[in-house]
Amino acid sequence: MKKTNSGNCAYPRIAALAKKAARRRLDVVMIGNEANVRALTGVACDNARLVIEPSADGAAPRTTFYTDFRYVPAVKRTAPDLKVVDFSKFACGKWKRIGFESCIPTRDYLDLKGAFPRAKLVDVLKDVHALRAVKTPAEIAAIAAAEALNDEIWARAQEDFKPGMTEKEMQRVIRAWMNALGDGEAFETIVCAGANAAECHHVPDDTVWRDGEPLLVDMGVKLAGVCADMTRCIMPRKPTAEYRKIYELVLQANRAGIAAARPGITGKELDKVARDVIRKAGYGTAFGHALGHGVGYEIHEAPTASRKSDWKLEPGMLVTIEPGVYLPGKLGVRIEDLVLITKDGCEVLSHSAK
Ligand code: ZN
Ligand code: ZN
After folding, report:
1. What is the DSSP pairing of strand 318-321 with strand 230-234?
2. DSSP bridge partners of 230
3. Which residues surround ligand 1, an ion (CB under 5 A)?
4. Which residues make beta-bridge pairs with 337?
5. Domains parsed from the chain with CATH numbers
6. In angstroms, rounded to a whole number, what is the distance separating the alpha carbons of residues 176 and 83?
7. How many CB atoms lie within 10 A of CB 105?
8. Using an 8 Å Cβ cutoff, are 220 and 229 in contact?
9. Which ligand is the nearest neighbour of the Cα of 321?
10. Are the C-beta atoms of residues 11 and 81 closer than 8 Å to each other?
11. Alpha-carbon distance 196 to 194, whole Å?
């Protein structure tokens, strides 16, 4: 059997992207988004352009990693199998069909159009996202470690929290633990005291957390380049009947989502399973966001689990299950876990009590 070089490519995602590009008759694919570069090459570099020229005969694609003077030595060291070239030596081909990422800044897009006025620009972002959505074993281990650290930080933060503290003070407590034990925050920690939890992305302010009030915290530590994500609510010792009812409802929706998360289900089917629990209880309009999202080098990645999502879940994908009910002026509850899709179901990576 004839062996092609593409199978030997040290970078399987680059080989897979090149294969898709060849099918779309692209002469070249250019990747510059930091998270995309990281996912394709393993290299952390915020000023890179990966130039991938697919080969029509199935051989390994010709790949060049362009970066600036500051990064050349580090990139050569971390990716010895890549051809690393200084931007000043950028070599254009006679490219007529160019694959690009539609997430690039408008300035970069206009530059690209200016440099190749006759070329057809084809968006390949979805292809890259599809490759990133299925994590490698190393990425899964890194994200599981970040989520475990997030659990630990949550446990420590709860010991530090005292009624009378403001939301900002509690946010600082979590930040300090994330800086001490991890690589900082993956996103701005959300802390909502009492009725502020009704705003799902409330910005922590000087609101005081009073004794007997519920608290909502949405937090994710960054560790070794990847993100964690989890939301927990602290139930007051004597919750109102309404708070207890809503908490139990959201927990039921969260559990239904986890039970349904498995290979083959689409993002919208998964969203519906959890949403139906809330809708049937009469709170459908109080759950105004998507059920979940992928997590990886970025806090929001593919696949999404929303009412419109056609992503089909596969083993190795990660998705959050985060239903919520928000009653303005009264209360808000969201419970978020991160799950890994396995061969026959899912594994919950968040272990904090709920
Ligand atoms: Zn979150
Ligand atoms: Zn989330």
Report:
1. unpaired
2. 219
3. 218, 229, 231, 336
4. 321
5. 12-132 (3.40.350.10), 137-348 (3.90.230.10)
6. 40
7. 10
8. yes
9. 2
10. yes
11. 6
Cβ-contact 154, 219 below 8 angstroms = yes
Pairing state between β 331-334 and 48-53: unpaired
pTM here?
0.94
Distance of CA 259 from the midpoint of ligand 1 (Å)? 19
Q: Do 21 and 55 contact (CB within 8 A), yes or no? A: no
CA-CA distance, 247 to 44, in Å (whole number)? Answer: 40
In the three-class reduction of DSSP (H, G, I as helix; E, B as strand; rest coil), residue 13 is classed as helix
Helices (H), 134-223: 137-160, 167-181
- Segments of the chain with pLDDT less than 50: 1-8
pLDDT for the residue 9 = 66
Tell me the HSE value of 124 on the side-chain side, using a 13 A CA sphere.
Answer: 30
What gap in Å lies between CA 272 and CA 289, rounded to an integer? 12
Structure tokens of 95?
Answer: 């490219």
- Ligand 1 center–CA 184 separation, angstroms: 15
Distance 49 CA to ligand 2 centre (A): 29
What is d(CA 138, CA 115) in angstroms, rounded to the nearest whole number? 38
The alpha carbon of 186 and the centre of ligand 2 are apart by a number of angstroms equal to: 11
Whether the CB-CB separation of 122 and 97 falls below 8 Å is answered with yes
Q: Which residue has the tokens 């990747």?
A: 31
CA atoms within 13 A on the CB side of 258: 16
Report d(CA 184, CA 173) in Å as an integer.
Answer: 12
Quote the radius of gyration of the chain (alpha carbons, Å).
23
Both tokens of 173, joined, read: 């407590």
CA 208/CA 61 separation, integer angstroms: 58
